[in-house]
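S1.2 Input.
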Amino acid sequence: MESAVAKALDSPVGEFLRARRRQVRPEQHGLVPGGGRQVAGLRRDEVALLAGISTDYYTRLEQGRERHPSARVVDALSAALLLDRASARYLREITASGAAGTGARPDADGIGAARLGAVRSLLDSVAVPAIVVNRRLDVIAANALGEVLHEGLEHRGNYARMVFLSPGAREFFTDWPALAVCVVAALRASAGPAADSVRLEHLVGELAVRSEVFGTAWARHDVHEKSFDRKRFRHPLVGPVEFDQHVLELPGSDGHRIWAYHPADRATEEALLSFASFATLSDPAPADRG
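S1.3 Output.
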């Protein structure tokens, strides 16, 4: 599993193209599958035909020997692979990163201490649970309600670790199977060209080794850009709750996002009052930021 992850991180464009090619059936493009096919999904020559490029050129892209596809080729490949808007944007990002020769984004969090303090003040003024995550889904700030929302879970310093490695996560997150797939796709989308950064590589390697579900989902190269979602929790303090999660990107940051959770029903509104009581009794310091 580790070697597969390292390979994926070392050649993001080739790995992405291979993974997504396997997910497209010939019939989706009106092609006759034929008998004796040795690959799942499309063959390389079929992708090349659909994208209007030579099979040799496409093969060089998958093998990492060609790193400078034009915008037209990237758009054609997106159409051939039936990519949605988020996945097509991701492909543009990783090919542009390689073409520019800039490599990965630096590992710095990309937000200064002064601005982080201002963001924390903003979170504290919000009357709903809220957290701030960076591109690696590290939780770099949370208001008191946001801390109580994830009460009882471990690995709360990183949302992906919390979902995949916390012993009680499958019971806590009511829709855990769907959430797990969503978290992996969101991690890949937010990482973008930084998919080969050292800290992200360590995170992906750790999760792939310790969670078969994560490793399988990461290998699919699915991409998901989250702006709104419905979240259901089985909270240890108040029981079942349901929130509308709103995602807001911080302008001028390196992909930092605020996740705010608004009650989706009356029962959750009432539970939120209990959250406020628990928050005043709790230690304001995060329970686990590592």
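S1.4 Remarks. The first strand starts at residue 130 and ends at 133.
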